[in-house]
Amino acid sequence: MKLTKWISMAMLLFISWGCFAAQVNVNSASAEEIAAELKGVGDTKAAAIVAYRSAHGAFKTADDLAMVKGIGQKTVEANRDNILIGDTAKK
C-alpha cells in the first residue's frame, strides 16, 4: 500500500512539473531567454535563432525553427508547447 502511494505521488509530481515550463516568444526574445526556456537549446543555438530571425524575418510557425542551422525537428517537437509565435507575449 505504501509503495502504491509513493508511486502515485511521484507520478503526480512528474506530470505537474511540465506545467511550470515557461513559454518563450522566439520572435521577440533575446538569445539568453531562448536558451533558458527551450530544452536542448544552449547559447550557441539560441544565438543562431536570433541571427536567423534578424536575417529572414519573424518565424511564422514553430516548425520554421527547423530552418535554423543546429535546430532540428526533434528539438522543435521537444519544445512545441513552450514556443510562442506572433504577437503572443512571453508568459
TrEMBL record:
Work out whether the entry's keyword set contains Cell cycle: no
Residue ranges of every copy of the Helix-hairpin-helix DNA-binding motif class domain listed in the record: 33-52, 63-82
**Is Signal found in the keyword set?**
yes
Enumerate the InterPro entries for this protein: Competence_ComEA_HhH, Endo/Exo/Phosphatase_dom_1, Hlx-hairpin-Hlx_DNA-bd_motif, RuvA_2-like
Which species is this record about?
Answer: Sedimenticola thiotaurini
Recorded GO CC terms: type II protein secretion system complex
This chain's protein is named: Helix-hairpin-helix domain-containing protein
The protein's matches in NCBIfam families, at most eight in alphabetical order, are given as: competence protein ComEA helix-hairpin-helix repeat region
Q: Which GO terms describe its biological process?
A: DNA repair; protein secretion by the type II secretion system
User: Signal sequence: where?
Assistant: 1-21
> What Pfam families does the database record attribute to this sequence?
HHH_3
Ranges annotated as spanning the membrane: none
Keyword terms? Signal
Molecular function GO terms recorded: DNA binding
